[in-house]
Structures are given as structure tokens and as C-alpha cells.
Amino acid sequence: MTMGDTTNVPSARIAPSMLSSDFANLASEAKRMLECGADWLHMDIMVCHFVPNLTIGAPVIQSLRKHTDAFLDCHLMVTNPSDYVAPFAQAGASGFTFHIEVVKDEWKDLLKSIKSAGMQAGVALRPGTSVEQIFPLVEGEEHVDMVLVMTVEPGFGGQKFIPEMMTKVNILRKKFPWLHIEVDGGLGPSTIEEAAKAGANCIVAGSSVFGSQDPAGVISLLRSKVQDATMRGF
Ligand SMILES: O=C(CO)[C@H](O)[C@H](O)COP(=O)(O)O
């Protein structure tokens, strides 16, 4: 990809992380975020293995789906993602992102099952995982739609953005211009520029959006930084 050649780069997707929302009012929190300009809703699925936290599962996705048509971008922080494909598809998940660290050769079957269940497929990598490990999942005939580069250790919201992860984002953007590249962890007004310049187009933001008095303003700023960087080239 040459400087300025951004023809195939997908447009910005701003995805508030519902991990930072008031879970007791999830439907109204989702509605509020969409009214503030969110493109996607990012749903963090944690079940006390892979990460030491417990959040929500398919029944909550199913309940939320009754209240919104929005793209539900589900990040499965689990060690056995194939067990979750059918329940999440039936619940109404739109995207299903699994972790590269928990799959071996079975990723091909997993990918097929996610897509044939009608969901967009994503693969996530922890900060310590090398980006080269996910190349086969993007290069093959059957490939993921999105790579999620974790910019914090997965498990909890409110952590500090790890800038070194931007090397991974930039390698991916140059090699796969068409790919959705998502970043998650510590994104907000002070870190978006770096992420956008590296080539991220899907921005997950929890604390910075939910903790703001002006969530619409934050979402709009995140989007404009991604748009500016895409126009300039990476
Ligand atoms: O996946 C996550 C943690 O595993 C969260 O989505 C992420 O950390 C977003 O929260 P914040 O913007 O507050 O960092």
C-alpha cells in the first residue's frame, strides 16, 4: 500500500464498549450510545477463563437484540469459542471475534461455522501475541473480516493504552488495506490520533465515552480522527 492509496480501506466504525455501561439499564444505554452516533455496540464476553472476569453471555445478547437492530460486535474472551457460535448466532450477535491464542488448526472450521451462522468473523490478539500469527487467518480463501488488536491486556475496562501495539496495526493496514482493524483498550481523545494514523478503523472505547459529559462529542472526535487519517494515508 502506498502513501495516499486508501481506496479500499473501510470507513470508521465507532463502537462504545458496553462493559462501561450500566448493565442494569443495558437497552437504554445502547439506545443512548446509538443516538450519540455509535456505529456498533461492542459486547465483551468474559466467563472467568481466559480472562479473570465475568460479564455477560448469549442470554443477555438475546435480550438486548429485542431492543435494537444495531451491529452487536461480540468479543469472546473464552478458551472454547466453538461452543459459543450457535448460541451467539441464535441470540442475534452480528460479529463473533475469537482469540488466536486459544485455537490451533481448528480455526478453519471455527471460521466456517461463524460465517455459515451468518455472523461476521473476527480474530483478536493479546498484546504479547505476534501479529504474524494471524496472517493465515486473513490470507486464506476463507478469511476473517476483522482483526482486533488488543491495546490493553483483555479483562477490564479503564486501563492504559499500550502504544507499542500500533506497529501491529500499521503492519496489518499496509498488508491488508481492505481489512477491518479494530483497537480496544484505553482509546479516547488522547490516544485516537496514534491509533488512527497507524490505520485502525474500528475504535472500541469504554471509559472515555461513558465517562464523558459529552459522549456524542467524543464519538464524533474519534470518527473525525479516523476519517482524517484515512484521507491522508498511512
Ligand atoms: O475489552 C475490553 C477489556 O478486555 C474493553 O472493551 C476495553 O478495555 C475498553 O474499555 P476502555 O475503553 O475503558 O479501556
UniProtKB/TrEMBL annotation:
**What processes does the entry annotate via GO biological process terms?**
carbohydrate metabolic process; pentose-phosphate shunt
Q: Give the main EC class.
A: isomerase
Report the cofactor remark: Binds 1 divalent metal cation per subunit.
Q: Does the keyword Lipid biosynthesis apply?
A: no
Catalytic residues of the enzyme: 44, 184
User: Which residues does the annotation say bind a divalent metal cation?
Assistant: 42, 44, 75, 184
Cofactor requirements of the protein = a divalent metal cation; Mn(2+); Co(2+); Fe(2+)
The source's superkingdom equals Eukaryota
Q: What are the entry keywords?
A: Carbohydrate metabolism, Cobalt, Isomerase, Manganese, Metal-binding, Zinc
**Entry EC number(s):** 5.1.3.1
Look up keyword Chloroplast and say if it applies.
no
Q: Which reactions is this enzyme annotated as catalysing? A: D-ribulose 5-phosphate = D-xylulose 5-phosphate
Q: Which InterPro entries match?
A: Aldolase_TIM, Ribul_P_3_epim, Ribul_P_3_epim-like, RibuloseP-bd_barrel
Q: Where does substrate bind?
A: 17, 75, 155-158, 186, 206-207
A GO molecular-function descriptor: metal ion binding
Pfam families tied to this protein: Ribul_P_3_epim (PF00834)
The similarity comment for this entry is: Belongs to the ribulose-phosphate 3-epimerase family.
Please give the name of this protein.
Answer: Ribulose-phosphate 3-epimerase
Taxonomic path: Eukaryota, Viridiplantae, Streptophyta, Embryophyta, Tracheophyta
